[in-house]
Amino acid sequence: AQGVASTRLAARLQRAHAVADLRGLAARRLPKAVFDFIDGGAEDERTLRDNVEAFDAWMLMPRVGVDVGTRDLSCAILGARSSLPVMMAPTGLAGFFWPDGEVAGARAAARAGIPYCLSTNSVGSIEHVAKGAPDGERWFQLYFLRDRDWMQALLRRAAAARYRVLCLTVDLAVQGRRERDLRNAFTMPLRPRLSTAFDLARRPGWLAGVARSRLGFGNFEVAGPGFTSVAQHVASLFDPSANWDDIARIRESWRGPMALKGLLHPADAERAVALGIEAVIVSNHGGRQLDDVPAAIEALPDVAAAVAGRAEVILDGGVRRGTDVIKALALGATACSLGRPFLWGLAAGGTEGVARTIEIFRSELDNAMTLLGTPALKDIARDHVRARRGRW
Ligand code: FNR
After folding, report:
1. How many CB atoms sit inside 10 A of residue 10's CB?
2. CB count in 10 Å sphere of residue 201
3. Which residues are CB-neighbours of 59 under 8 A, at least 6 positions away?
4. Separation between Cα atoms, residue 225 and residue 349, nearest integer Å
5. What pairs with residue 316 in β-bridges?
């Protein structure tokens, strides 16, 4: 029976030709509250929408007469080779979307040769994920915790488990107001309610897998009473008082390369560079934190100008197509970091689903680079994009 199920799954994934198709599969498989947690954003979700729609403000400008007979989609991200200018953004609770979801995602990333970033808020622990996906380029994402000793312990554990890059996320002093989660009374695990019972009855695949998994925040000892909302978890453990001195201290205590994630202002990027941080991740947390802030692609050009090549610039948020990746590179990014597209793949089909997301991006990017006349990533220049006038 398992063989039949996995053949069916493989066939479904093969019929997904855009990440939007994988989103549809995820919506069918996940309970509504879980799907909303992934898909939703803060308050009116304006930034969430803008992250995607702001890519429309740019057009691609192809050049002809270029030999595009062979293409090279690979690049270096913080000194490590990546087969695509794309990495998996840190996303909490992946083990709540697919059984052992972090390992499933990390395996797909390793197999495809792109970086995987594990979240502080993962279900599987730092060690568990390193053991389950020992190959490949692993990053660890850290939040500021009230318990500084615990934070240092997480850093030591990540280094010992051979996560090469540290990604410090600085846009989550408190959790944004995500109203879908409030309305759904979203907790991990799901609190049994009559309204969810009907929903769950229609999600046998998810129920059989995830509902039987051991759920919790694997990097924390606080097992807790269960039924924790992410906002509660953040409010009790995260430290809103962290400032640039604290960021500097983390920089000093991590030997490997470090990225700072969640900035939009060029002056903050300057400050990060001054501390010796090797990459800035231009991000509004996928529209999940402060609403009404600029779309990531909107903030990118000024940040790239301020950084002026002294650090790598990673664009994070709203990337849904290979052409979006090209626009980001043309506007100064080294690479892109993607959250939801991988989570939709994960929820649709575990490792194979994430592999499908990567495959889709690979073929879209290859196709677009061929038609644009840029056979290698280094050929993509500012001149390959034009601001679209009139409608915006
Ligand atoms: C996130 N994000 C996130 N970021 C982070 O630094 N640590 C985390 O634990 C999480 N958790 C998380 C969970 C879920 C369900 C989502 C959707 C996002 C933000 C993530 O790293 C990234 O910034 C956004 O997802 C990028 O936007 P797109 O690609 O989803 O549009």
Report:
1. 13
2. 9
3. 385, 386, 387, 388
4. 30
5. 283, 337
Identify which of 45, 180, 285, 316 to mutate to test ligand 1's pocket (most ligand atoms within 8 A of the CB): 285
164-204 pLDDT, tens per residue? 999 999 999 999 999 999 999 999 999 988 888 999 999 99
The letter for the amino acid at 100 is D
For residue 2, the tally of other CB atoms under 10 A from its CB is 6
Sorted by where each begins, the domain ranges of the chain are: 2-387
Give kind and range of the element (H or E) at residue 265: none
Residue whose Cα lies nearest atom 15 of ligand 1: it is 38
Tell me, in angstroms, the distance from the centre of ligand 1 to residue 89's CA.
6
Cα-to-centroid distance, 1 and ligand 1 (Å): 35
The structure's pTM equals 0.97
Measured by CA distance, the residue closest to atom 25 of ligand 1 is 339
The binding-site residues of ligand 1, defined as CB within 6 angstroms of any ligand atom, are: 37-38, 51, 89-92, 119-121, 141, 169, 261, 283, 285-286, 288, 316-319, 338-340, 343
* pLDDT tens readout for residues 21-45: 999 999 999 999 999 999 999 999 9
Helix (H) or strand (E) holding 342: helix 340-372
- Residues comprising the binding site for glyoxylate? 143, 178, 285, 288
The rounded mean pLDDT for the chain is 96
* Structure confidence by residue, pLDDT tens digits, 248-292: 999 999 999 999 999 999 999 999 999 999 999 999 999 999 999
What's the 390 CA to ligand 1 centre distance in angstroms? 32
Residues annotated as catalytic are 285
Give me the DSSP letters along 60-85.
E----S---SS-B--EEETTEEESSS
Q: Which CATH number fits domain 2-387: 3.40.50.300, 3.20.20.70, 3.30.360.10, 3.40.50.2000?
A: 3.20.20.70
Single-letter amino acid, residue 13 = L
pLDDT 10s digits, 302-352: 999 999 999 999 999 999 999 999 999 999 999 999 999 999 999 999 999
